[in-house]
Amino acid sequence: MFRGDAQLTGVSHDELPSLLSVRWTFQAAEAVASTAAIVQGTVYLGCEEGIFYAIDLATGQEKWTFKAKDEVPLQASPLVLEGMVYFGDDDGIFHALDASTGKERWTFETDGQIFSSANHHQGRILFGSYDAHLYCLDATDGRLIWKYETEGKLHGSPGIFNGQAIVAGCDEGLHIVNISDGKLVTRISMGSVTGASPAVAESGVYVGTYGNQVLGIDLATRKVRWRFEDPDRQFPYMASAAITKDTVVIGGRDKFVRAFDPITGQQRWSFRTKARVDSSPVVVGKRVFVGSSDGNLYELDIASGKEIWRFEAGAGIIASPAIAQGCLVVGTLDGTVYCLSQKLPPEEVKK
């Protein structure tokens, strides 16, 4: 799923080879803004032509495709859970497909675009819509269990922590909602709207805003603990943060990737790319992988922010890297999907 777990931490517990090279490429019909989900040897992602793909992780060969009505863009990232694939589209339709065949099991219609990636909790699927609602559906049949109304569009995904959904939106509020009944627990003012998804940890909630700030929010006191704002570079944050025990990493439209102390908000380092960073970073051990609209995928050292390696994709990257089984998969704005892994010997490539 998007960001790897229900708390949207952006931390992968898989391992990657120290040196990466292209194992395969796959050409989608249009730009890929959707972050892939990788489950049991299959890569799942959508493109802006309205086609959803299942791709074999080992070979890069297409397993099946699903086409949304009227070729509506698929920009939300998929959730794969217990043999089903869940995602929304720009027509406001939420889809549930059979993960093995691509056959549609059920749909649910909202009144706004769905950019929010789905999350899950105890047989329930949660996602936001541009109709200003957070939805909770039964994973089996798509039955509406409850919907919670905010005062603005919901672009980002809800994080889940201690039986509660945590979602930030375009009404400048961070909403904490009980998953059991859809009732509001509390609303915390962020001071600005956001299109990002909150990263949730024991130490708090971390999210960037359109007000050019990164926030660290204390869940216990229900207050903003710290705010970061670069006085010289006033640009919004669309990427979601990655959070480890001692570091918050996030990219911004100011072209920088930055790391912060999660408790104090002190900036530890910054790394400048050549264009905006809407791709959300992923942490693998002591390494950070993040794409940029400059067409590069960067590998940074999480302690220092120094560049270790880069891959020149040749087209902008706004999707986030997905990592599983020793492979990194990411799509680009020219529709190319790359699988980076340990280089195979020639005899294996021919197979």
Mind explaining what this structure looks like?
The protein has 1 helix and 33 strands. The longest helix has 5 residues, at about 345-350. The protein is an all-beta fold and about 350 residues long. It starts with 10 loop residues before the first strand and ends with a helix. A hairpin with a 2-residue loop joins strand 7 (about 80) and strand 8. The strands form 8 sheets. Strands 1-27-28-29-30 form a 5-stranded mixed beta sheet, with no helix packed on it. A 4-stranded antiparallel beta sheet has the order 2-33-32-31, with no helix packed on it. It has one helix at about 345-350, and strands at about 10, 20-25, 35-40, 40-45, 50-55, 60-65, 80, 85-90, 95-100, 105-110, 120, 125-130, 135-140, 145-150, 160, 165-170, 175-180, 185-190, 200, 205-210, 215-220, 225-230, 240-245, 250, 255-260, 265-270, 280-285, 285-290, 295-300, 305-310, 320-325, 325-330, 335-340. Helices cover about 0% and strands about 45% of the residues.
